[in-house]
Amino acid sequence: MNTIPMEHGLLLAGILFIIGLVSVLIRRNIIFMLISVEIMLNAAGLAFIVAGARWVQPEGQVMFIFIITMAAAEVSVGLALILQLYHNLKTLDSDAANVMNG
Amino acid sequence: MENLLWLVPALPFAGALILIITGTRLSRPLVSLIGVGSVGVSALLTLILGSQFLSAGPTEPVYQQVVWQWFSVEGFNPGIAFHLDALSMVFIFVITFVGFLIHLYSTAYMADDDGFARFFAYLNLFVGSMLVLVLADNLVLLYLGWEGVGLCSYLLIGFWYKEPANGYAARKAFIITRVGDTALAIGLFMLFQLFGTLHIQTIATEAPQTWAVGSQAATIIAFLLLGGAVGKSGQLPLQTWLPDAMAGPTPVSALIHAATMVTAGVYLITRMHVIFELAPTAMLTVAIIGAVTLLIAGCAALAQSDLKRVLAYSTISQIGYMFLALGVGAWSAGIFHFMIHAFFKALLFLSAGAIIISLHHEQNMFRMGGLRKLLPAVFWTFLIGSASLAALPLITAGFYSKDQILWYAMAGERGNTWLYLAGLLGAFITAIYTFRMVFITFYGAPKSHVTHPPGPIITVPLIILAVLSLLGGFIELPHNFGHVVLFSDFLTPLLPAIHANDALGTSEWIFQLVAAIISLSGVYLAYVFYLQKPALQANMEQSSLFRAVHRFWYSGWGFDKLYDTLFVRPYVFLARINKNDIIDKIYAALAAIAQVLNRSLAQTQSGILRWYMMGVVVGALLIITLSLLP
């Protein structure tokens, strides 16, 4: 059986993470920002899976399930916030929500 | 009876307390009764104690009484405890007795004053503090009395506080004596550090065993104690407060600034004589300070025109004599002069007060004149006081006390010719300024009207003091002349006797003759200048040198100006620079920096989500980089 080398898996996780991070930073649409955060979460989960497979330990998958669960909870809160934002400001532009500046 | 010792200082304190609390509501006769009565009963008690004391026999009589423990800290437990020996006996006798006469006199002198009750409250408080000072058996209690009299002096100099000049004089007296008091306090700290106690008798017995003669610690402590004495007694270089202290009512000048408080320095040095004898340098300094002060103050007295200022400078000068006596180790001579001086100087001040009030608060001698006929009783008593001050031979007490000092300044073990000559010159100057004062005030043409002739309450104390000023000297007569030594015998168990140089022993009469001639010639000179040929004086006033010297002496040798430039002005200058508190600027700068940082950081809180995100990322990167660094 051909195994995928650990470096490839980690590289993929890193790339996914960078993509997510960059899109959080450059996107103004708040839904896209939420999706990018999800990508970053999945990148982190992938890194756990790869590490779990490398050392043949179950904790990596346990951790991934934990992250998925947390992400679900986070998304529900995040979507609620987005709804409120849209309700109040009639826009999805995150820069519009700058009322609470110093 | 000796259990009643505590009542001697307690009664005046009680009087002060009653007067402070209820004074304004009591009638004036009642206030007088409380004020004079408390001191009067103290004086009576002192007389009873004194007679017991004298009849106690040859053993050294000492009464000790511990009233209660003041405080107790780590084995240091000074008590409110009184110690009556021959030295404090002399002092409490003078304080209560002269104090009583002055209180009595004040009832008439201050009769029309608004602050009648306040005056007697302060005066009683003063007498109480002074008694605590001389009766204290430990130095802490002594210091309490020492500060108490300083406070009363301040309150009474500024008694007529509505006049700003009086308040200034009061502050000046308080601050300048504080300089000396600080030295005294440091001296006490050092004594405590070395002995672990401030009990006077313990220190007196332990000091000679601990220190060799001339040891450094003894010298330093003696100098610090001397600093306190110099401040309180108005000696060089802290004498400038005393002439200004005359701003207070005249009975105050008589009681505090002539008879009692200013001699506290003399008491302190005598009380701690064991330490001073271990420090010959300090002893010599005491003598030199005394000699220089008596000359400087005598010259300054020559130029004054205010009657009370003449007396003030003369007080400084006479205390200079006492210091001279202490400095050459003639302890009992110094204390004897203290007692006689208290009599005649109180007399002079009270007579001056009688004149001043008779002429409706006129103090300038040159506006008096011719009062001999107008105020005969005051004239005679003033004349007696002046004769005693000028040490007219044979009849006055001042002659015997001053002669003793001069003799020991020459013939004592520590005496030398220079000290003697200074004392002799001082005696000459004293005679001149004293009789200058008498001739200007009482002779010549009357220049003012007597509006309030003094009543019996004023004249009776004057007469009693005049009698004492004449007869007080006969309890101590020189060796070759009567040889009465009641006073020095009384003090001998306590104070070491002084031995005269044997080589001079037979020639004592020559010195007495010289002193007598000097004093008489001083009187004659004053007579010529101020009575017989006033033209001589007018001639001298033509010369610019005379006027310059006169101005210089009138200002008290320019000490006020000197201290003004040396201390007051730099201090005021610094205060003006530091008006906005330079040290505070550092903390203000800290606050300003914090504010600037706050403002710039507040800029970053833009409300834009992506910037915050960026911040998180940069921070995370930073932490990761730092943790990856070796």
Description of the structure:
The complex is a heterodimer of chains A (102) and B (630). Chain A contains 3 helices and no strands. By secondary structure, chain A is mainly α. Chain A has a single domain, classed as Orthogonal Bundle (Helix Hairpins). Chain A is elongated. With 630 residues, chain B is mostly helical. Helices cover 72% and strands 2% of the residues of chain B. A two-stranded antiparallel sheet of chain B has the order 1-2. Chain B starts with 6 loop residues before the first helix and ends with a helix. The interface between A and B is medium-sized, with 15 and 13 residues.
Question: Which terms would index this structure?
Answer:
heterodimer; A: 102 residues; mainly alpha; Helix Hairpins; elongated; B: 630 residues; two-stranded antiparallel ribbon; 27 helices; ND/Mrp_TM (chain B); NADH dehydrogenase activity (chain B)
- Spans of chain B of at least 5 consecutive residues whose pLDDT stays below 50 are none
H and E string of chain B: HHEEHHHHHHHHHHHHHHHHHHHHHHHHH
**Average pLDDT figure of chain B:** 85
Largest sheet, strands/sense/barrel of chain A: none
Using the coordinates shown, work out and report the CATH topology of chain A: Helix Hairpins
Assembly classification: heterodimer
Percent helix range of chain A: over 70%
Number of strands of chain B: 2
Radius of gyration of chain B: 30 Å
What general form of chain A does the structure show?
elongated
Q: How far apart lie the N and C ends of chain A?
A: 59 Å
User: Strand share of the residues of chain A?
Assistant: under 5%
Largest interface: A-B, 15 and 13 residues
